[in-house]
Each structure stands twice: as structure tokens, then as C-alpha cells.
Design goal:
The chain is α+β, with helices and mostly antiparallel strands. Among the domains are: 34 residues, no CATH class; 96 residues, no CATH class. Helices cover 45% and strands 12% of the residues. The chain has 17 helices and twelve strands. Strands 4-5-6-7 form a four-stranded antiparallel sheet, with no helix packed on it. The protein has a three-stranded antiparallel sheet with strand order 3-2-8. Helix 1 packs across helix 2, helix 5 crosses helix 6 and helix 5 packs parallel to helix 10. It is extended and about 95 Å long. About 1% of the residues have low confidence.
Length: 515
């Protein structure tokens, strides 16, 4: 029938028939593929879905201030958010990532023994700097504590900036951590709320404090001297070039993870689940309050004159106005003649509370890459299931540790090493003459907390088996099991063995006790 109608239109009004055919083909093209499902605009389930997505500057930068504020508020008020952030802090850096220099001896033409001796000197010198508080501009933190602060700031704010200078009194490299709140467009009246800035005379543009060249490369950062609430403090903006003109080393370390190209600001770790965690917190608070109220059962007695005082104790008794009643533990209240009361059973605690919160923990944890077992610190499942959950979480923690050490720890280590070589503290021939030589001297691994072990005996036996089969090395297994250095372990064991022989507790290798 449809074909007959189209044929009739073709005979009567050929131009109109052609337009109808074109419209029909266009409609068929529109209603294909994902338009029947995820991209549908006609399905009832999809009509109310507002999915507008713009540039990273509009999607991220314009919402960044509110995301930071809500993320920090959740960490301070929601146990679930606090647990998620702290689990990352404990497993990614823990007490601090330790530098393990690994000089490329082959590239430098050094003997292995000489390279090992140089590594020990560098490790000792760096640890002396990192363990003191002179590495912090404020003089309050060691480098290991700065790592914790930097990672925590990234988790809650989505980014952290690290600037550096050199103590003129000969104290060496110093690090200054700056929150993202202080990076904003010059002249912003509300500090860090405006995103766009007019084009500068150089042709660069500034997006939310980040100065970008025409090709998209970051050339400078703009920082303000105070927070929004520090009204009495002077307000000054400072432009810091991204890279030193003479040294070629970064002046600013911008530690964040981008999800999109041309994204120049970071998003808080909790951002995808802020709404879910807030709703769960509200529900939990309501259940707790209902349980408390249900536990405060009060008895009301009707008398002839209704003038007897309230008996029993109430937490708010001292703050009550005359004639005001409050629930309390075992309260007995009096009413006027003829008045009564109906006792309502709140049925608390809610029998479904535990199951619901467990389900929400899985829901939230899946988005944060933290299993519910680790989020709630409850390992009630089988050994294999619990170990599987820990290993999945460890993959995520290991990924973030690698990123954090590369973006924060390693650049600072390289700046410290350059300063130490320039001062003659470390002897590194050719360090400033060739970039490849400098990279060979600067090679370093960063070790931290090892993954948790549910059964240490099983884990150790598995490590031994991998070493015996040639599938792993002592160094790798030492790092994986407890975050230590295999070489340092062997040296310490040799010293302890010799000490036992010296004290007559063991025999020497020739079978005789030491004199």
C-alpha cells in the first residue's frame, strides 16, 4: 500500500515525492545502531536523560570548586568516604615511598661493584635529606610526610602543585606544596571561579590559572597569595613558568590525572560517587537517630491536676524551657487531665540496614576500585575470595603508586641529585654534560608498603617456588612481600650471622666457634 502511495505522489507531485524519499532515508539513518538503545531520544527511559558534554574546561573547571568542597566535606563527615581515602593513602604511600637508586652501569661504563657503591652513597645522602624537615619550605614535614600530604590533597582535591627553591643558607632543595584552590586566573574577584581569560599579548590563553600556548602546551601557572576566606591578607598573583629557562627542569610539578585530552585540572577521587556516599550517609544518620529515639522510651501519666514534675534524667534537661518536654532514658512525664498519648513503635534497628549498606558498599567500592571487604575492613569470606579481593585492589594501588612516584617523587629526586652533584656531595662524572648520562645516574625505583598477606606461610612458600623456578628474583619478591631491598636484607643477615659467631652463639663456617 505504501509503495502505491509513493508511486501516486511521484506522478502527481514529483518534487514533493523526492523530498519525502530523502526525509525517509534520513530518518532511517538516524534510527540505526545505538539510536535504538543507548543513544535513543524517543524511549521513555531515555527522554529525561540530560547528557550534555562540553569541553574539559566547561565540564571540569567550572564545577571544580564545588567538587572540592563536597569531597572534603564527605571525608570529614562520612565514614565510607574516610575509609576509601585512607585505604588509598595507606596502601599507595603508607609511611612514605623509599628511593632505591639503580644506576645504569652499562650505559655509564662502570663496573658493577663501583655502581653498587655509588648507589649506596646516593641512597644514604638522599635519605638524610628526606628524613629531615629542611626539605619542607614550612619546616614542618619530612619528604615522606610531604608524600602523604600530596597524595591526600590529590585524593580530596583532584590535584596538588609542588614548587621548589633552594635554601640560600646552604640547606639545599626545599619543596612547597600548594593546593589547587590557589591556582586561578589573575584578577579573579572570587578567586578560582572564572575559567576563561582573554588572549594575552603573547597569544597565550589562561584557563583557570593554567597558561596555555597556541599549540596547547602548558607554559606557566598563576597562583594567588591567599585563600578566599583570608580577606585581610594581601592579594597578589604570581606567574611561575612551567620550566626553568636556564636549567630546563620543571619549576612546578602539577600532580593530577587527566581523563580527557586538553584537560588541565584534576578531579577529586570521590567525584563519581559523591551523591551516592552523601545519600548513604543521610540514610545511616537517620537510622541511627531512629534507633536512639526508639531506645528512649518515655512513660506519660495522667493525673487530676497535671502538675507533677518530670521524673528521670534527660540529656537536654538543663537547656529546656519551662513546660518543654524531651525524650530521655526512662523519662516519666505528666499530662493535663483528660490528655493521653499514643506510643509509636519505630521498629529500630532496621533488619534490612546491614544488607542495604553492604550492597551500597559494593556499589560505591566498584566505582572507587576498592572491594567492599577492604572498604569495611571485614574479611568474612573464604581465603581465596578474600585474597582475590585484596589482589584486585592491589592492582589499582600499584597503578597509582607508579603514577605518583613518576609525577612527584622522581622529579624531586632528580632535582635533589642535580643539586648534590653540583655541590660535590655526590661524584657523578658527566652528569651535566650529557642528558643520557644524567638519566643513567638518575635511575631510581620507589618502594613502599607491600600488599597484605592473609596467610604469610603460603605467600613465602610461593615466593620461594617462583625464585627456584626462575620465574622471579629475590629483589622482586622482597619488594612484593614486605617492601624491602633484597641486597640490604642479605647484607644485614651476613652482619647478624657474624655477630652470632662472635658472641659464641653459632659456629663459624669452618665448624669452630670464634675466639
Amino acid at each position: 500500500m505504501g509503495k502505491l502511495i509513493e508511486a501516486a505522489w511521484a506522478q502527481i507531485a514529483p518534487i514533493h515525492a523526492a523530498k519525502r524519499a530523502a526525509a525517509r532515508h534520513a530518518l532511517q539513518a538516524m534510527n540505526s545502531g545505538y539510536s535504538h538503545g543507548a543513544a535513543s531520544t524517543t524511549k521513555t527511559s531515555m527522554k529525561g536523560w540530560d547528557s550534555t558534554s562540553l569541553s574539559p574546561q566547561s565540564d571540569v573547571d567550572r564545577n571544580l570548586r564545588l567538587l572540592r568542597e563536597r569531597s572534603r566535606d564527605l571525608y570529614a563527615t562520612s565514614p565510607v568516604a574516610t575509609s576509601a581515602v585512607n585505604r588509598n593513602l595507606v596502601h599507595i604511600v603508607g609511611p612514605g615511598l623509599r628511593a632505591s637508586p639503580h644506576i645504569d652501569a652499562e650505559a655509564l661504563g662502570m663496573a658493577e661493584d663501583d655502581a653498587a657503591a655509588a648507589e649506596r652513597r646516593i641512597r644514604t645522602a638522599f635519605n638524610a635529606w628526606a628524613s629531615g624537615k629542611g626539605c619542607d619550605v614550612t619546616g614542618q614535614n619530612t619528604f615522606y610526610e610531604l608524600q602523604q600530604i600530596a597524595l591526600m590533597t590529590w585524593l580530596l582535591s583532584g590535584e596538588v602543585f609542588a614548587l621548589h627553591d633552594f635554601d640560600g643558607r646552604g640547606g639545599g632543595l626545599r619543596v612547597r606544596l600548594v593546593e589547587g584552590d590557589l591556582c586561578c586566573n589573575p584578577g579573579a574577584s572570587t578567586l578560582s571561579t572564572n575559567v576563561w581569560a582573554k588572549e594575552l599579548s603573547t597569544g597565550n590563553r589562561i584557563y583557570n590559572g593554567i597558561e596555555i600556548a597556541r599549540d596547547g602546551c602548558v607554559v606557566a601557572y598563576h597562583f594567588v597569595s591567599r585563600y578566599r576566606d583570608q580577606v585581610g591578607e594581601p592579594t597578589e598573583w604570581v606567574r611561575v613558568p612551567a620550566v626553568g629557562a636556564l636549567t630546563g627542569t620543571p619549576n612546578v610539578l602539577h600532580v593530577f590525572k587527566a581523563d580527557r585530552p586538553t584537560q588541565y585540572r584534576g578531579v577529586p577521587y570521590l567525584a563519581p560517587v559523591i551523591e551516592s556516599i552523601k545519600q548513604l550517609t543521610r540514610y545511616t544518620d537517620a537510622e541511627i537517630m531512629a534507633a536512639v529515639i526508639n531506645g528512649m522510651f518515655s512513660v506519660f501519666i495522667t493525673t487530676d491536676n497535671g502538675t507533677s514534675p518530670i521524673l528521670g534524667e534527660s540529656e537536654d534537661e538543663d537547656g529546656l524551657d519551662e513546660g518543654e518536654l524531651a525524650l530521655g532514658n526512662g523519662n516519666i512525664a505528666t499530662l493535663a487531665p483528660g490528655e493521653g498519648v499514643q506510643v509509636v513503635d519505630a521498629k529500630r534497628p532496621n533488619s534490612n540496614f546491614g544488607g542495604f549498606t553492604d550492597a551500597m558498599a559494593k556499589y560505591i567500592g566498584s566505582a572507587l576500585n576498592i572491594p567492599a571487604e577492604l572498604l569495611f575492613m571485614q574479611f568474612n569470606a573464604s581465603y581465596s575470595a578474600s585474597r582475590g579481593a585484596l589482589m584486585e585492589a592491589w592492582e589499582f594501588f600499584s597503578l597509582n603508586r607508579t603514577w605518583f612516584s613518576a609525577d612527584f617523587c622522581q622529579p624531586i629526586y632528580e632535582m635533589w641529585l642535580a643539586d648534590a652533584v653540583a655541590k660535590g656531595v655526590i661524584d657523578a662524572p658527566g652528569f651535566f654534560a650529557d642528558d643520557l648520562v644524567r638519566a643513567a645516574w638518575s635511575a631510581c625505583d620507589w618502594t613502599g608498603p607491600a600488599p597484605g598477606q592473609l596467610n604469610p606461610t603460603v605467600e613465602v612458600n610461593a615466593a620461594k617456588a617462583r625464585i627456584d623456578a626462575g620465574l622471579s628474583t629475590g629483589e622482586r619478591e622482597a619488594l612484593a612481600l614486605n617492601g624491602t631491598s633484597y641486597e640490604e636484607n642479605l647484607r644485614q643477615l651476613a652482619q647478624e650471622k657474624q655477630l652470632r659467631v662472635t658472641l659464641g652463639l653459632d659456629e663459624s663456617e669452618d665448624g669452630n666457634a670464634a675466639d
